[in-house]
TrEMBL record:
Alphabetical UniProt keywords: Cell membrane, Heme, Iron, Membrane, Metal-binding, Repeat, Signal
Gene3D superfamilies, per the entry: Cytochrome c-like domain (1.10.760.10)
Organism whose genome encodes this protein: Paraburkholderia polaris
SUPFAM superfamilies cross-referenced by the UniProt entry: Cytochrome c
Record localization: Cell membrane
Cofactor note: Binds 3 heme c groups covalently per subunit.
Upper classification of the organism: Bacteria, Pseudomonadati, Pseudomonadota, Betaproteobacteria, Burkholderiales
Protein name as annotated: C-type cytochrome
Residue intervals passing through the bilayer: none
């Protein structure tokens, strides 16, 4: 009944938008047709064969993590589609974006390619579900768009593969309604530089807001499943978001659950290798694939630009706190060293967790993440913490980073009450100050994960 009620609410919202936005139909169609009438000039047609442009497009495709969504797991052909992506409305399958003319995008003109990326409309007028982050890709510059087209047409091997067709339940199966969603929520404009900021800031902002589409995961969604902001002018932009039973953390300057205590070097190192430099944080969940498929290939200049931009964001939606010098933290440190701890969850932690994360919660640099002061530990939303304990996880395997390490799953070893107890202990020890974890939270997530 809970699922049906949620779908009913979504359906009602969808239909309200379809009704109320109808008045803008004619104006938007005329504007869209004018913008989409452009085709590549002769000069452009020649340029897309340029090896330098194709090479640049390959790098841009890594910046956009195109392979991350458009490559099926278990050794699927690159960009041939077929990845199943969970959404509140059902499973969405990624499409084949190789230059195969029958099953891929080999027949796309430049104008059609541009329209798909920026407007979410495939040839023939078929609307793409916003799992394709065109709300971010609309900001991609013209030069970068041309380079991407050159790469996908002439730098990617064509693969004949027809992925499963996305079949969402009514009314979400009615793709025409996405016109109204787009009209209501997407700002179709290129990235505009801020002349008051330096070149590094503007480069970082461009990457985060467009190709990197960081907000697609790290920005909360509204009632219409829209991102609650697309740049730093929005209060909720990059303050954390729930996606496919993971919580993507706050990227603003919050000292608790955000990036406030991380240096730009920590952020750049985290993206490059999945591990912080001085702060012992490690990539988890879907971000592991982002590092493996995308971020590890970024140039140092681009990594530093992204870090510079993120560090400029003021603290928003603060959650949790970290005070390792508090009396409580000092007393707990002594108790953990001697093993004289009576706090609920402490025994489980010492028996199952301390070997890797250490009794002081500081982890091991380049191996196991610290839990003391970890922004994810301090986040208001505990979904990611719970899922890691239930399912386990692994750090990324990168070309130049530390070897991958695995965390075991405890779904079959711990009861709901025990998971809640040990995580509450972690969230309130070593100076961590975050709300307790409820047994019901564990049970709900277990149900969603079928664990």
């Amino acid at each position: 009944m809970i699922v049906m009620n949620r779908f009913a609410r979504r359906a009602a919202y969808f239909l309200i938008i379809a009704t109320t936005m109808g008045a803008v139909l004619c104006t938007r169609v005329l504007t869209s047709v004018h913008a989409q009438a452009t085709a590549p000039t002769t000069d452009k047609a020649v340029a897309i064969m340029d090896p330098t442009l194709i090479s640049r497009g390959e790098y841009l495709a890594k910046l956009g993590d195109c392979a991350g969504c458009h490559t099926a797991p278990k050794q699927g052909a690159p960009f041939a589609g077929g990845l199943a992506m969970g959404s509140p409305f059902g499973t969405i399958y990624s499409t084949n974006i190789t230059p195969d003319r029958q099953t891929g995008i080999g027949h796309y003109s430049y104008a059609e390619f541009e329209r798909a990326l920026r407007d979410g409309v495939a040839p023939g007028g078929k609307r793409l579900y916003p799992a394709m982050p065109y709300a971010s890709f609309t900001k991609i510059s013209d030069a970068d768009m041309l380079a991407l087209y050159a790469y996908f047409m002439h730098g990617v091997l064509p693969v004949s593969n027809r992925p499963p067709e996305t079949m969402l339940p009514f009314p979400f199966s009615q793709r025409w309604g996405l016109f109204f969603w787009d009209t209501a929520f997407v700002r179709h404009e290129r990235f505009k530089q801020d002349d008051k900021r330096d070149a590094q800031w503007n480069r970082g902002a461009y990457l985060v807001q467009s190709l990197g589409h960081c907000g697609a995961c790290h920005t909360p969604r509204g009632a219409g499943f829209e991102e609650r902001g697309y740049d730093e002018s929005s209060r909720l932009y990059l303050t954390g978001g729930a996606n496919d039973n993971w919580f993507a953390p706050n990227l603003t300057g919050d000292l608790g659950s955000g990036l406030g205590r991380l240096s730009p070097h920590d952020i750049a190192a985290f993206l490059k290798s999945g591990h912080g430099a001085a702060v012992h944080i490690v990539t988890f969940g879907s971000m592991v694939q982002v590092v493996e498929d995308s971020a590890q290939y970024f140039t140092d200049d681009d990594l530093n630009a992204i870090a510079h931009y993120l560090k400029s964001l003021p603290a928003r939606e603060p959650s949790g706190a970290y005070n390792p010098q508090s009396q409580k933290a000092q007393e707990m440190a002594v108790s953990l060293k001697t093993g004289d701890v009576e706090h609920p969850g402490a025994g489980l932690y010492l028996a199952f967790c301390a070997k890797c994360h250490q009794t002081d919660g500081r982890g091991v640099l380049q191996k196991f993440p610290a839990l003391a002061g970890n922004p994810t530990v301090l986040a208001l939303d505990t979904t990611s913490l719970l899922r890691l304990v239930i399912e386990g996880g692994a750090s990324p395997q990168t070309l130049n980073g530390p070897p991958t390490r695995k965390m075991p799953a405890f779904a079959n070893q711990f009861t709901d009450a025990e998971i809640a107890s040990v995580l509450t202990f972690v969230r309130t020890s070593w100076g961590n100050e975050a709300r307790p974890v409820a047994k019901r939270d564990v049970a709900v997530l277990r149900g969603k994960l079928k664990k």
